[in-house]
Amino acid sequence: MTKTPKVQLRGLYKIFGSRDKDMMAHVKAGMGKPELLEVHKHVLGLQDINVDMQAGEITVVMGLSGSGKSTLIRHLNRLIEPTVGEILVDGIDVTELKPADLRKLRQEKMSMVFQKFALLPHRTVLQNAAMALEVQGIDKDTREAEGMKWLNRVGLEGYENRYPAQLSGGMQQRVGIARALTSNSDIMLMDEAFSALDPLIRTDMQNLLLELQTELQKTIIFITHDLDEALKIADHLVILKDGAVIQQGEPQSILLNPADPYIEDFVSDINRARVLRVKSVMQPLQDPTMMDKLKGQKFAGDVDIRDNLESLIARSEGDTSLQYRVMDGDVPVGELNMRDLVKALVPRISSTA
Fold first, then answer.
1. What is the C-alpha to C-alpha distance for residues 2 and 120, in angstroms, rounded to an integer?
2. pLDDT beyond 90 at 60
C-alpha cells in the first residue's frame, strides 16, 4: 500500500513583484531568474516545486543563499502566498483555507523553530515554552505543566524561571524546540534553526533533534545551507538552485549518484566516510534463503547497517581484504567487502572540471 504524504507541494511557483501572475507566462516559456529580474524587474522565488514530505520523517531543504529554501518553508503555513500551485497538508489545500482555518492550522497543526530563536525577552523560559498553548486558550496550570515536561526533556530543568538573556544561544534554541514540542503539533518547521550556533553546540542540537525524532516521529521540515548537517539528519533531501529542485531523494543515494554537475560540485568536498552508511555500500541479501550462506561464511566480524564507513575503516585498520557480515539488529541482511567501501569513498569527477 502506498503511503499518502503528510505534506505535498504540487506545481508551486512564487514570483515576487506587483505583476506576479502576468510573469508566469514568461517563466513557463523558459525565462530564468536572472533574465526575469533584468527584463521585468520581478524575482523568481520558486519554480515548479513538486515535493512529497512523509509523516514521521525529516525532510531537509537545502541550497545556497538565494536558492529559495526559506521562501519554500514559509509557504507551508502561508506566511508567504504562492503565485500558483497547491500546498496539501493531510490532503487539504492550505492555499484555499479561510482566515479562521488558517489560524487553526498555525496554532494546532504546525509549529516553527526560528534561526534567531524568536523568544519574548520579557517572559520567563517557562512562559516562552508554554506560549503556544496560551494562544490556544489552554489554562495556565495545564500549559505550564506541559511546558515543564518539554523543558526537562531538552535539558533545561531548573532554568524555567530565568529569562532568555540569561541563557546561552544553544540554551535559547532549546527553549525554541521545547516551545514547538509543547504545542503538540504534527508538523515542525525549522528554518536554519541551528545555523546561528557555534559548531560544537550545533552538533549537540543536531543530536538532540535526532534523539527526539526517534521517540516522537514528528513530520519535520528542516531548512539549512549546510550539506554536512543535511546529510546527517535528513530522511529525504531536497536540493534547490535558483528556486528550482535540482535533485531530491534519500541522502546517501544523492551523495553516491549526483544527478548533474551542480550536485557533483556540491557534494565533492564532503567527508564521505563520515556521512555514508554501511547500508549504502553493502551487498544486500536478495533471497532470504541466502541467510544460511551468511551464517556459514567466514567474516572479519559483524557490523550494524547504520554504522558510518569511518568507524568501519578504523575497525578494519584499512585492510581492504576483509569482509563483514551486515546486521540489522539480530538479523543478517547482507555483506560488505572493504574494496567496495573504498570505491564508494571516491567521488565522481564533475563533468564541469
1. 43
2. yes
